[in-house]
Amino acid sequence: MTSNTPVAQVENNRPESGAEVLALLKEGNARYVESLSSTDAMTQKRPELVSVQNPLAIILGCSDARVPVEIVFDQGLGELFVIRVAGNIVAPSQIGSVEFAAEQFGTKLVVVLGHSQCGAVTACVDTLMNPEQNYSPNLQSIVDRIRPSVYNLHELATANGQDPDVDELVERAIRANVRTSVSQLKYGSRVLEELSGSGKLLIVGAEYDLKTGKVRFLDN
User: Of 10, 98, 116, 150, whose Cβ has the fewest other Cβ atoms within 10 Å?
Assistant: First the structure.
């Protein structure tokens, strides 16, 4: 019989707040940027995780293969509850996954992690600039969820009648999309809104830079 007892009940050195977990992730990313990460942490806890998990943080990230979340934050096996979907969008299944981890494990931090040169956001920008662009219905559903974050930026960029700087538009749209996902998690779920409002769950946005490896946490 497997045990459902959370590891946190027997570990006294676990972070007690979302802010403390956030500090650990920042420290881990700094180690990663300085190439001080150890691959040992990825496997050394595997046997004890067979019957239980107790993740430090929930990460809603993009599916991009260049953003391996545990490595980026220098966290070992079992430390992060990772949800990955193109464009780090928020849909009912993603909300349900976050709710599950927050309630089941008492995880205290959610990070919506976007990244530079995001293909899903770029595809959304392309559809605004080239309305004749066609994608499959499934890919279009992802683009449509990103569109509200990008539309106003596109309108502002084209208001003077000139062609916008596409690279700048994509860069700003990536951060806008992260902030939208953070807002949808905070206010699109009664469970998460109550946890966030009571201070039991911290929900933040961040952007990973593919060139430098740094994670920049965004002001909400």
Answer: 10
